[in-house]
Amino acid sequence: MATILLIEDTQPLSELYSYSIGSAGYTVVTASSGVEGLEIIKRQPVDLVLLDIMLPGVNGLNVLKQIKENPETNHIPVIMVSVLEQDAILKQARDAGANGYLFKDHITPDVLVEEVQKYLKTDQPVPSTP
Amino acid sequence: MDATAQQTMPASKTPVSSAALRDLKKSNKLKDEFIAITVHNQKTPLIIIQGYVDLVQKETKNLSDMQKHALEEIEKQSKRLIEINSRLLSVTKLHGDVIALKKETVDLAELTRDVAASFVVKLQNKRIRLVIDTPEQLTAKIDCEWIREVWENLLSNALKFTPEGGKITISVKPKGQTIMCQITDTGIGIDKQEIQNIFAPFYRTQDALTGGYDGIGLGLYIVKLIIKGHNGKIRIVPSHKGARIQFLLPKN
């Protein structure tokens, strides 16, 4: 089953999202900062990234840019998860190559899993083996 | 919200220097920013509360009736807070110097039917009949999301104040270079004395207060700001029974 990297600094949300995705059978690796997330991507294969925008240190948009500008990682689908609904932020995320954008107040376990499945299907027709 | 909106003294009796007016506008802007930041900071805690309630409801078997009720109540009250926050945020956005209206040519008749359709279940639960009178198509240059909010606010009010078995009528019709929209209900109505205050921020009618109807008195204020932002007009039509609200929107 595919491995999802969740970069989220709000601990309770990280727990909730991990639980939802884990319950759907995916392997979840968590990071609480952008730097930690980028280190994990270098270290181990990741099939999809769920990325918060407001993160301590390197913010989510910069993490996204680093993932998408690196030829070794730019194939990984990245779904932004944020409370920010400003058009300007959405545009920046889109321009930087975000594959999806979820507003945190619209996220339920089903919505999250559906979104993850959607990008794993389109961007990675062959899921990585465990 | 808008410190100048509820002036009780006639302007002529309260001369204000341009410096004082500038300060007032500045503090008003600061207040709106403060509200926006506060609302934003409450968002994540509320999302977490809802997430855990949802999780416990789905994952826990054999909850007692009291436990189920407690969870439902936590969910209901956190949703209410989210709703209040969303209204406060709408107001701060609409107070901006330049309201960021994204006007585009939209089929207003279709938009109205679309919003009405989203109320079907709530209307059925109160056995309220909804009559919609719109042409097949009627385009206007409007901000689709804000006008959607207008209809949602007006329909929520009509639904709230109309007793079971009542009726709500919505119409959208061309009138010269404008479009006339109207909503009528068979609810508790608005007292003639209160019509002049009804669009003021945080204003609640006596009947709404004493009848125990939920609300913070921002719905119609938001509606008015949106219509004003579209260079439109809104009014309460005095009615012997129920409430009737009309608004005009320019076609272009």
How is this structure best described in words?
- The complex is a heterodimer of chains A (about 130) and B (about 250).
- Chain A is built from five helices and five strands.
- Chain A has helices at about 10-25, 35-45, 60-70, 85-95, 110-125; strands at about 5, 25-30, 50, 80, 100-105.
- In chain A, helix 1 (about 10-25) links the parallel strand 1 and strand 2 (about 25-30).
- Chain A is globular and about 30 Å long.
- Residues about 125-130 of chain A have low confidence and may be disordered.
- Chain B folds into two domains: about 10-95, Helix Hairpins (Orthogonal Bundle), CATH 1.10.287; about 105-250, 2-Layer Sandwich (Heat Shock Protein 90).
- In chain B, strands 2-4-5-7-6 form a five-stranded mixed beta sheet, covered by helices on one side.
- In chain B, strand 6 and strand 7 form a beta hairpin.
- The longest helix of chain B has about 40 residues, at about 20-60.
- The interface between A and B is small, with 11 and 12 residues.
CATH architecture name of the largest domain in chain B: 2-Layer Sandwich
SS-based structural class of chain A? alpha/beta
Beta-strand level of the residues of chain B, as a percent range? 15-25%
Strands of chain A, count: 5
Order of secondary-structure elements of chain B: HHEHHEEHEEHHEE
Residue runs with pLDDT of under 50 for 5 or more positions of chain B: 1-11
Choose one word for the global shape of chain B.
globular
Give me the CATH superfamily of chain A.
Response regulator
Write down the CATH topology of the largest domain in chain B: Heat Shock Protein 90
Total number of beta strands of chain B:
7
The largest sheet of chain A has its strands arranged as 2-1-3-4-5
Query: Strand arrangement, largest sheet of chain B?
Result: 2-4-5-7-6
- Residue-averaged pLDDT of chain A: 90
CATH class assignment of chain A: Alpha Beta
What would you report as the Rg of chain B, rounded to the nearest angstrom? 20 Å
Determine the number of helices of chain B (DSSP H or I, runs of at least 4 residues): 7
Largest interface, Cβ cutoff 8 Å: A-B, 11 and 12 residues
Distance between the termini of chain B: 30 Å
**Radius of gyration of chain A over all CA atoms, rounded:** 13 Å
Write the CATH homologous superfamily of the largest domain in chain B.
Answer: Histidine kinase-like ATPase, C-terminal domain
Average the pLDDT over all residues of chain B and give the rounded result: 88
